[in-house]
Specification:
The chain is mainly alpha-helical. 80% of the residues lie in helices and 3% in strands. The termini are far apart.
């Protein structure tokens, strides 16, 4: 079972690496250059008169179809992997948000309790009530 998960991880990482390269400008430039060289080679015979795929470039079409048939599923696997990463991140954010809400509710309850405590102490002492260096309204009235 562990070997299967390692294989899955290696496959996922490989698809991520391939899709990172396959979706880059470097890939586009290299692929364009490869096609131009292929066509020039077979039209003008850059090496003597050796034309391995004369026009209409049937072998080139086969190679391009093969690349497309392999590259598309790899890109889709990488997109699925990214979707899984995004889903995991959203779930973590949601869980953290729930914890923050609980903490805020707890702090609010403590503040309400503290407020009630202050009100009861104020009723007992009407003269010079100061709390944590905060001057109360009744201090200013005296």
């Amino acid at each position: 079972m562990e070997e299967k998960s390692k294989t899955k991880i290696i496959g996922e990482l490989l698809s991520d690496v391939i899709s990172d390269f396959g979706g880059s400008w470097r890939y586009l430039v290299l692929f364009f250059m490869f096609n131009i060289i292929w066509m020039l080679w077979n039209v003008w015979g850059l090496v003597g008169s050796f034309h391995f795929d004369p026009p209409p470039f049937i072998l080139l079409n086969l190679v391009l179809a093969f690349i497309a048939s392999i590259q598309a599923p790899i890109l889709m696997m990488s997109n699925n992997r990214q979707s899984e990463k995004d889903r995991e991140l959203l779930l973590k954010d949601y869980e953290m948000g729930k914890e923050v809400v609980k903490e805020l509710q707890s702090m609010n309850e403590r503040l309400l309790e503290f407020n009630q405590l202050l009100k009861t102490k104020r009723k007992g002492k009407r003269n010079n009530v100061k709390t944590f260096g905060i001057i109360q309204k009744q201090d200013l009235e005296e």
